[in-house]
Amino acid sequence: MHCSRCFDKYHYGCLNISTTKFDIFSSEFKAKWICPSCRCKEPKRDNINTPIRPTSTLSNAQVYENVTLRTKSKSSSNCSCISADSIREIIRDELRSALNSQLLEIKNQISVFDQSLSFLSNEYDTIKKDMETQKKYLADLHKENEMLRTSTRDISLRLRQIDQQSRACNIEIQCVPEHRSENIVKLVQQLGKTINCPIKDEDVYYSSR
């Protein structure tokens, strides 16, 4: 329905007009139709000839009970009618409220994600620093290990040389029968007498088979 004065559009369902009744309306009636908002603004006339509305007719509150009404300022009329602009404004408010709620939730999620990312970044920096410290420690251990290997090699070589030098004055005697409870020092002294080479006790530093 198009108002012939304010040119606003209304759905006949919001005006509590059935489809059958709407189809009965003539084109002339629709062209001259005035919306409830504009009709409320008309000056009051003498209503002597106005027929009494049947009691079964729905009141304005019942007619528009399925329409959300906006609170008007005190300067506006007391008519409970609602225009298309008001409906559009209500829809805008509802959409704005829904979008604000969704945006707030997204903002909170982004904030939590940012905190998690900062925590992971700090943990990564800590782990990286620890790895660098461990890497340096391993390098020092490797260097120390190489030094110990070199020292061990030198000590082994020296011990071998000392052992060879200590054996320079040794005498090895072979093919001597072994007896139970024998005294090797006495045996060596007897061998010395046999070859006319006397050997004293202090001449023998160590003897073994």
From TrEMBL:
**Taxonomic superkingdom:** Eukaryota
Annotated protein name in UniProt: (African queen) hypothetical protein
Taxonomic path = Eukaryota, Metazoa, Ecdysozoa, Arthropoda, Hexapoda
